């Protein structure tokens, strides 16, 4: 087994252990020791990957957002229903972990989703013009309400455990846009 595969497996074990622990207790009550025991690793292994539990949380968030951003910004792909659906399929693979995060006040998942949607929309050519035509209110209010609508739908989907398929959720999102 290569070193890269072992690192990936270890990080996945840590992530699963962390999700399991978050479903049982608050973030503040989870220690690195408990994470290591649950993941069946030693503390040294944990510290090879993360400085502390806050660093771990930040890196887990960054990894997920980086993968989603890579899907959304694929070369030669316009922002479309297909891209949104592919993104939701990626998130659906990790819906249990996202569900636990959504129920963890420390994480502030709705805020993370809003910021990410805003970032994506800011990088879509002519999106402001589209929004001005679609919603006849000042742009700053139109953008905030549009982003809040999508964030609310995604948060509800995550909290419900991904009850609808990624295709169904894509249709719902595009019905409001």
Automatic annotation (TrEMBL):
<feature type="DNA-binding region" description="H-T-H motif">
    <location>
        <begin position="31"/>
        <end position="50"/>
    </location>
</feature>
<dbReference type="Pfam" id="PF00440">
    <property type="entry name" value="TetR_N"/>
</dbReference>
<feature type="domain" description="HTH tetR-type">
    <location>
        <begin position="8"/>
        <end position="68"/>
    </location>
</feature>
<dbReference type="Pfam" id="PF14278">
    <property type="entry name" value="TetR_C_8"/>
</dbReference>
<dbReference type="InterPro" id="IPR050624">
    <property type="entry name" value="HTH-type_Tx_Regulator"/>
</dbReference>
<protein>
    <submittedName>
        <fullName>TetR/AcrR family transcriptional regulator</fullName>
    </submittedName>
</protein>
<dbReference type="InterPro" id="IPR009057">
    <property type="entry name" value="Homeodomain-like_sf"/>
</dbReference>
<dbReference type="InterPro" id="IPR001647">
    <property type="entry name" value="HTH_TetR"/>
</dbReference>
<dbReference type="InterPro" id="IPR039532">
    <property type="entry name" value="TetR_C_Firmicutes"/>
</dbReference>
<keyword id="KW-0238">DNA-binding</keyword>
């Amino acid at each position: 087994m290569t070193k890269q595969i072992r690192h990936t497996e270890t990080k996945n074990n840590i992530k699963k252990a962390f999700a399991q622990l978050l479903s049982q207790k608050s973030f503040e009550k989870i220690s690195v020791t408990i994470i290591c025991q649950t993941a069946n690793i030693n503390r040294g292994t944990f510290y090879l990957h993360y400085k502390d539990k806050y660093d771990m949380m930040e890196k887990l968030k960054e990894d997920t957002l980086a993968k989603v951003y890579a899907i959304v910004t694929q070369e030669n792909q316009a922002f479309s229903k297909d891209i949104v659906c592919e993104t939701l399929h990626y998130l659906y693979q990790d819906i249990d972990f996202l569900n636990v995060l959504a129920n963890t006040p420390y994480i502030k998942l709705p805020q993370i989703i809003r910021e990410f949607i805003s970032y994506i929309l800011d990088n879509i050519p002519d999106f402001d013009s589209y929004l001005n035509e679609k919603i006849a209110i000042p742009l700053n209010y139109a953008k905030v309400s549009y982003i809040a609508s999508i964030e609310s739908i995604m948060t509800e989907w995550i909290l419900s455990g991904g009850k609808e398929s990624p295709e169904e959720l894509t249709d719902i999102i595009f019905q409001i846009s």
